[in-house]
Amino acid sequence: MIPKRVHIEDLPSENGTYLSALFCREQGCRGLVIPVQTRTLQPDWRCITCENVFPHAKMAKYQDFALNTINNRINSCSVQDMIHFINELCPRFCPSSNYVLIEAKLNVIWRMTRFDHEEYTPEEMGHMDRYREEVLAILHKLGAGECTLKKLITGEIQ
Description:
The protein is of the alpha+beta class. It has helices at residues 56-76, 79-89, 99-114, 122-141, 148-153; strands spanning 22-23, 32-35, 45-47, 53-54. This is SET and MYND domain containing, arthropod-specific, member 8, isoform C.
């Protein structure tokens, strides 16, 4: 199989997945901020809506806040609390496509598939199915093909 040629314009958005994106910190802007493609290890970040540029140090702190907040919830909350957190609180500081939030969604999928489905409400099962579809869509955009993660979340591997 010949790999698809990567276009430079696809790199900052990670093939349209925006896995590293955060919300813009500029007052009144809800655009996505993504790392500027440079040859440095700590690039500045630019909002794709207002085009403001933010220093790496500021965005790293913001990213650490999001990561720590979500990871603390993953490690201490019930599945029901995680669903509420993902759906109601995370959208305030992190786009639904951010890799940290994808990790939280995968955690919910994993926890819900480990136990008897009867302990979850139809609404909770619906959230799990939506998370599964969102993750599968990202894997598709990334060109992941028939990877192990895809097989795990579609139930092909038990």
